[in-house]
Design a protein that fits this description.
3 domains, SH3 type barrels, alpha+beta, Helix Hairpins
Length: 293
């Protein structure tokens, strides 16, 4: 009797399991298919948006990373909610719970949310783009990426900088790449006895001999300082923004070489020392007539 009852209970359980599987298995398979499809579609959408951004020069490349990430996670979120609905989970209450959790997390992470807001403003106003050389507060380097939370830079020495967007947004931004053309200002010191007009001609010739220097505005040289040891001759010339650093270094070397070749000296700090003879106060005084008496 016990065996018959056990068999009967097992049959009932098998029938209930079969009935549940018949109802739940299609939904479970559909949920799995939705998850897999969502992951594939998120990757496709991210690559598609990346290609669209690359194909349109008018779209800022800085937006590429943000748009691709938003597309990827947006598709994953939508398909994930659809998969939960297939499993019979009430997504309305789930979304309400997630909203409450998001509010609590948002209150706890106010600094992070401020970084997100700053990142959105940076992407909207675009004070700099990927590849620009900028100075932001104490940080200076080439912009590598602008994300929702932070921006990354690479300094002139190759150092990696990770700066929260809130720090970037609250500081003055100096964009050296976007400013084009840029002025190259270099001061050369010549001796007081040298010919100022001749030095001016040499420096203008040095500037015009560089193809990176622009003809409009023309290079100019004028006396900028009457120093203790030299007369300051300031050269002002214009070049393209990306060529500014290399052009300035080259004009320093070329200007010195051409000035020396023209017989114009570049003095260094020096002092003239004059020694004045003083009477020797340590020698005994000569005896007078009264002392001899």
């Amino acid at each position: 009797m016990e065996i018959d009852k056990l068999n009967q209970d097992f049959n009932v359980f098998a029938q209930q399991l079969a009935a549940w599987a018949a109802n739940a298995l299609p939904n479970l398979l559909a949920a799995i298919v939705l998850v897999v499809l969502g992951l594939w579609l998120s990757s496709v959408a991210a690559h598609a948006i990346g290609r669209v951004v690359d194909a349109h020069p008018s779209v800022d490349p800085t937006l590429k990373g943000v748009l691709t990430r938003l597309a990827r996670w947006g598709v994953i979120a939508v398909t994930g909610i659809a998969a939960l609905s297939q499993l019979g989970i009430q997504t309305t209450s789930l979304l309400a719970a997630l909203g409450a959790i998001g509010l609590a997390v948002g209150l706890a992470l106010q600094g992070t949310l401020s970084n997100i807001a700053a990142g959105i403003m940076l992407l909207w106003l675009r004070p700099f783009r990927t590849g620009d050389y900028v100075s932001v507060g104490d940080a200076a380097g080439t912009v590598k990426d602008v994300g929702l939370f932070a921006s990354t830079f690479e300094t002139f020495e190759g150092v990696y900088l990770f700066v929260p967007n809130g720090e970037v947004w609250n500081k003055m931004v100096t964009n050296f790449t976007r400013s084009t053309p840029r002025m190259v200002r270099v001061t050369f010191g010549i001796a007081y006895e040298d010919d100022i007009a001749k030095a001016r001609d040499v420096l203008i010739k040095a500037a015009k001999s560089d193809d990176r220097m622009l003809d409009d505005p023309e290079p100019s040289v004028f006396v900028s300082e009457l120093g203790d040891n030299s007369v300051g001759m300031e050269l002002r010339a214009w070049t393209r923004g990306p060529d500014w650093v290399s052009t300035r270094f080259d004009i320093l070397e070329r200007g010195k070489t051409m000035l020396e070749a023209a017989g114009i000296s570049i003095p260094f700090p020096q002092r003239d020392l004059y020694i004045k003879s003083m009477p020797d106060t340590t020698a005994p005084a000569l005896a007078g007539p009264s002392d001899e008496a």
